[in-house]
Amino acid sequence: KGTTVIYIETAKVEEIIASSSPYYKMQTLNQALERMVNAKLITESDAVAASNKPEELQMRLQGFKKEEGF
After folding, report:
1. pTM, to two decimals
2. Among 19, 27, 49, 62, which residue has the least CB neighbours within 10 Å?
3. Is-contact 36 59, C-beta < 8 A?
4. How far apart are CA 27 and CA 13, in angstroms?
């Protein structure tokens, strides 16, 4: 049961980081990978392979952003 609490709190921290990017300049791994793909610094397949949440990254690369409510 304690693990569930830790996971929920971790998820909240990631949401806060994702939504605070413009102001605090923090970003999640997927936000950083998305920016590198868009800047043509890495390939999409390399980014997905490096991602801790590859399905979420694929959605971001298709234009769906979690912080915008996908």
Report:
1. 0.69
2. 62
3. no
4. 11
